[in-house]
Amino acid sequence: MDWIVAPDGNGRALPDVLPSLLGSLGVAGFTDTIGFPECRNAAVLLVDGLGHDLLRDHAEDAPFLASLLTRPPLTAGFPTTTVTSLTSLGTGRCAGEHGIVGYTFAEPSGGLLHPLSWSSRGDRRSLLERWPPEQAQPMSTVFDRAAAAGVDVRTAVPAEFEGSGLTRAAMRGAEFRGQRAFGDLAAEMLVALNADGPALCYGYHGHLDLLGHVHGPGSLPWRLQLTQLDGLVAMLADRLPPGAVLAVIADHGMVEADPATAFDADTDPALREGVRMLGGEARARHVYVEPGALGDVLAAWQERIGDQGLVLTGEQAIDEGWFGPVVVDAVRPRIGDVLAVMRDSEVIRSVAEPGEAALRGQHGSLTAAEQLIPLLVLGG
């Protein structure tokens, strides 16, 4: 499929960012495969939803950020969704190892986990006690390993994320520094960049993704938010101390979707027959099938989706390396028996997600617009 951008395995993907920055800091046990400047302190600002293609296409709205588009883009991994990408960043591993394999996915009791709320998809019951994040994602994070090596490690993220399931799964090991607006996000990052060192700070900005979902990427509200973000990074650049590096990245890109043309997994018999449970999100579906129905479901979905996407078995996706070079045994049951990823602007909606399926901006699939993320580097 010429529209598929496969996850990158050559040391230039999202899981490589933090280990590479630590390598540039000279921390033992970490190697810089990306090529950051040597530095004393480092920070990474992740802008949710800022795809490489989106920034390039809207350079006039973010001239400072666009001026930094001098390096090849990184790849986000699969699926191109926030929960997976943040865990890939935080652990330095792909989804096949860390196990956060989608926006929703099968959990041990037979339901779907919604990692953003760490609750059951159907009834929104918390799963923090029944399936703790440290059990679902038991591997050490990059923050754990960096702190053990003597690095001052901090996260500057929205205050409401403190103690959340996703924070515990993806970001444990860092000092949590809750922020509420641009001002304290910038301040927290600058404090870390000015520390005695070595220090590493992770910052998160989510408003661009929010407006892209609601209004569509490239809409006027989205462009105005991008301009504000441009000013934030320019301000950080002006105050960047000598010997410090700031990297600006994203977790995924985004495409504009038309809900009126969506496939409907609830009313279309071809997409319902033999399906036990539907996970993932509108552009990257995990399809869990009834016993003995795999062949029929696969054939029906392939015929119905046609050339508007790609439908294959979970085992085929694993073999293709979509979830990374290693898929551990505990993670395999979380991956759909059948996977469906969409091209162009197509989506597969479900009544279980009335809000999500109606959004103007979507992501999750493996198009260049979703998979390629910018790598913007300042300082050193």
Question: Gist?
Answer:
The protein has 16 helices and 19 strands.
Indicate the CATH class of the largest domain. Answer: Alpha Beta
The global form is: globular
Distance N terminus to C terminus?
40 Å
What is the number of helical segments per DSSP (H or I, 4+ residues)?
16
Explain what you see.
It comes from Saccharopolyspora antimicrobica. GO terms for molecular function: hydrolase activity. With 380 residues, the chain is an alpha/beta fold. The protein has two domains: 14-255 and 366-379, Alkaline Phosphatase, subunit A; 259-362, Gyrase A, domain 2, CATH 3.30.1360. It contains 16 helices and 19 strands. The protein has a six-stranded mixed β-sheet, sandwiched between helices. Strand 6, helix 8 (165-170) and strand 7 (175-179) form a beta-alpha-beta unit.
Write the layout of secondary structure elements.
Blueprint: H1 17-24, E1 41-47, H2 52-57, H3 63-67, E2 74-75, H4 82-91, H5 95-98, E3 105-106, E4 112-114, E5 119-120, H6 133-136, H7 142-148, E6 152-158, H8 165-170, E7 175-179, H9 182-193, E8 199-205, H10 207-215, H11 220-238, E9 244-250, E10 255-256, E11 263-264, H12 269-272, E12 275-281, E13 284-289, H13 294-305, E14 309-313, H14 314-319, E15 338-342, E16 348-349, H15 354-357, E17 361-362, H16 368-371, E18 372-373, E19 376-379
Parallel strand pairs: 1-8, 1-9, 6-7, 6-8, 11-16
Antiparallel strand pairs: 2-18, 3-4, 4-5, 9-19, 10-17, 12-13, 13-15, 14-15
Helix pairs in contact: 10-11
